[in-house]
Amino acid sequence: MELLLVIVIGLLYSGGVYLILRRSMVKLLLGIMLLGNGTNILIFLLGKITKGSPPVINEAYKVFQDIYADPIPQALILTAIVISFALTSFAIVLLKRVYALVDSDDLDDLNTPEEEEL
Amino acid sequence: MIDNHILAPVFVQLFTAIAQLMFWRKTVTQRFLSVGGSIIGLLVAIRLFSRTQSEGILTMNAANWDAPFGIVFVADTLSVTLVLLTSIAGVAVSIFSSVSLSRQRMLYGYFPIFHFLIMGLYGAFLTGDIFNLYVYFEVIIISSFVLMTLGGRKAQLEGAVKYMAMNILASMFFLTGIGILYGITGSLNMADVAMKIQLVQNKTLVGITSCFFIIGFGIKSAVFPLYYWLPSSYHTPPSAVAATFGGLLTKVGIYAMIRVLSLIFIPDDFTKTLLMVIAVLTIVTGAFGALIKTNVRRLFSYLIVCHIGFMVGGIAMFTKVALMGTVFYLIHDIVVKTTMFLIAGLIRQLRGTLEMEKLGGLYRDYPKVSLLIAVVLFSLVGIPPLSGFWPKIFLFQDSFSQQQYFFAAALLFGSFVTLFVIARMWSKVFWKNPPEEENVEDRFAPMQPYKKLLMLLPIAFLCGVTLYIGLNAEAIVNVTDKISNQLIDNSSYIKAVLGEKTN
């Protein structure tokens, strides 16, 4: 399981970096999304994967007697997913507006030398 | 000492923003709420500052969970100083934007988002939990995205694409770093991590993790190879927004860098060298960028980059004197950079353009306003006894005692270029006769007198703060001395968070 996750993380990160380095805005967006998912799985992996032992203390004891699944990484991932969802939806709307204004998907075309307004 | 007062600044901004959302499209009410909320925030921050001065580090455990398990908020001297400065800048920007912004922007929620941004800044300064710091960073960047794109002009949106992509990337680096850090220490509380990371055997892994944090914060604070998003986006939004960004947002990156490096990843020789190289190159590239710009706001954007290098260099030396210089410069920089972008907004209002070639004759037409601006520019350049001068003494002194001659040279070069570009700007914008064929669009003269006053008031207020910092340098030095003591010896921070049981 760990090995599989490591491979998946590597694929997501490398795919994300590759897409970010392209010139297309849509690929930039997809790259950011892939990186975000890669990071989430990384946190999940680094929290140590433990199957079948929930973090519930047996009634007979006061502390954990055995290794248990760490709930914190999952809470962190949940937060990170919500945040990246918000950021991604903002990014999609922004890129759509830019595409409508610039009429190009190429990041190199984003250089209007326009005088700014107050 | 457990204290709920720490969260008061955060809540003041949160409730201000919520109250403004209730008055959606009622821009006059929103303006009053914004200025009122900012002033209450300032008062709360002053009270918090004076309490930490007398009572030491305050902490607050969220929901009363004991320290390493729950989220903890810590108000040490560095945090509250930055909260105080943010409040000062917040009051000024809120007054300035309520007279200078177009009604169109206010209708679409400029003020609530502005207060959410300030809330995020307060939270980032006060939290003692590394994941919570990430969450507040996200609050800051999502608010700044909205502020940057509000208005929807083409140049603005184009700048926002670069800004958004780089900032999300920075967050990814930061989050990856947090993930690995949690994997090797099993904790998120910064004080607890600081204890546990010393026990980690695999020092290479710790070094790699610290690189993730340095890259993440480096993008946010715009250091050399990662700075280019800043000059290509900061000249696009309205000046009031640019003032918030230029004065505060890059400084959060510096704050986070100081906090993480002083607490968790105590810099070793490799990190110090890396930061020093970054600092020197940041100063040099920022200075060269500033030399060729003819637009006032683009010039200021490059000066931000240049001066970030001063602070990173101070962190790189990581001695008490150098950190005093860094923190003092941080204090000075927040005030002065905010003022500079407000001044850019004022020039734009006076002349309708920010291209230096088309400007001129401001001193002839508005001598008193020009003198006010001159004080701020002198302070930026670092003419003694104004505020930009004192931190440079500390940085110089320590770069010689640490034999960092490259940094000393870069510091001299950066200061000299700053002087040169500001002098050039002064002569072109204020002294030169305006070009005759241009028809000047003065939107300032027809304004009502109270509006003129409200536009000048924030600049005069921040100018007063700069003068206070410069002329009352001894008080600031005492504060920075206290801060750098707490940074060099982090045991007081750890003790305040985790209690006596650790030692």
UniProtKB/TrEMBL annotation, chain A:
Predominant place of localization: membrane
**Matches recorded under Gene3D superfamilies:** 1.10.287.3510
Q: What is this protein called?
A: Putative monovalent cation/H+ antiporter subunit C
Q: What is the lineage of its organism?
A: Bacteria, Pseudomonadati, Bacteroidota, Sphingobacteriia, Sphingobacteriales
Family listed: Belongs to the CPA3 antiporters (TC 2.A.63) subunit C family.
Keywords of this protein's UniProt record, alphabetized? Cell membrane, Membrane, Transmembrane, Transmembrane helix
Q: Which residues cross the membrane?
A: 6-21, 28-46, 75-95
Entries under InterPro entries matching the protein: CPA3_antiporter_subunitC (IPR050601), NUOK/Mnh_C1-like (IPR039428)
The protein's topology relative to the membrane is:
Multi-pass membrane protein
Subcellular compartments: Cell membrane
**GO CC terms in record:** plasma membrane
Pfam family, any one: Oxidored_q2
* Protein source organism: Sphingobacterium deserti
TrEMBL record, chain B:
Q: Can you say where in the cell this protein is located? A: Cell membrane; Membrane
Pfam families linked? Proton_antipo_M
GO molecular function term, any single one: NADH dehydrogenase (ubiquinone) activity
What InterPro entries does its record include? CPA3_Na-H_Antiporter_D, NADH_UbQ_OxRdtase, ND/Mrp_TM
Q: How does it sit in the membrane?
A: Multi-pass membrane protein
GO terms classed as biological process? ATP synthesis coupled electron transport
Regions crossing the membrane: 6-24, 31-49, 69-95, 107-127, 133-151, 163-185, 205-230, 242-267, 273-292, 299-321, 327-348, 369-390, 405-423, 453-471
Q: Which UniProt keywords apply?
A: Cell membrane, Membrane, Transmembrane, Transmembrane helix
NADH:quinone oxidoreductase/Mrp antiporter transmembrane domain location: 129-418
Gene Ontology terms, cellular component aspect? plasma membrane
Query: What family does the entry list?
Result: Belongs to the CPA3 antiporters (TC 2.A.63) subunit D family.
From the Swiss-Prot or TrEMBL record, give the protein name: Na(+)/H(+) antiporter subunit D
Q: Which organism is it from?
A: Sphingobacterium deserti
